[in-house]
TrEMBL record:
Residue stretches making up the MIP18 family-like domain: 6-79
GO biological process, one term: methylation
Domain of life, per lineage: Bacteria
Keyword terms: Methyltransferase, Transferase
Name of the protein this chain belongs to: DNA methyltransferase
GO function terms (MF aspect): methyltransferase activity
A Pfam family reported for this protein in Swiss-Prot or TrEMBL: FeS_assembly_P
InterPro entries for the chain: Fe-S_Maturation_MIP18, FSCA_dom_sf, MIP18-like
Signal peptide residue numbers: none
Length: 102
């Protein structure tokens, strides 16, 4: 996958906002990995801010919807992982400022 497509996908994922925190999943550091095969089958490996998050199915649906408009993406699979665990250290500077975290 070329860098422009990768940036396009991450740009689309920035439209997916964590409903509890009001910050997108990219800036929160929830997206760990992005893979795409030659047929356009795309796998997003990500985590959530807490185990047992009741909003997990909604976030997964939003990820799939966000990538619908990218022609190279044919199918999306979202793998939720808990290892490594998410911490505030994974957040971007933008997310930390928006949430008032030093």
């Amino acid at each position: 996958m070329d860098e422009a497509l990768r940036e396009n996908i991450f740009g689309a994922l920035e439209q997916v906002v964590d409903p509890e925190l009001g910050i997108d999943i990219v800036n929160l550091g929830l997206v760990y990995e992005l893979d795409m095969d030659d047929e356009g089958n795309t796998t997003i490996t990500m985590t959530l801010t807490s185990m047992g998050c009741p909003l997990a199915p909604i976030i997964v649906d939003e990820v799939k919807k966000a990538l619908n408009d990218i022609p190279e993406v044919k199918d999306v699979q979202v793998d939720i992982v808990w290892n490594p665990p998410w911490t505030r250290d994974k957040m971007s500077r933008y997310a930390k400022i928006a949430l008032g975290i030093q």
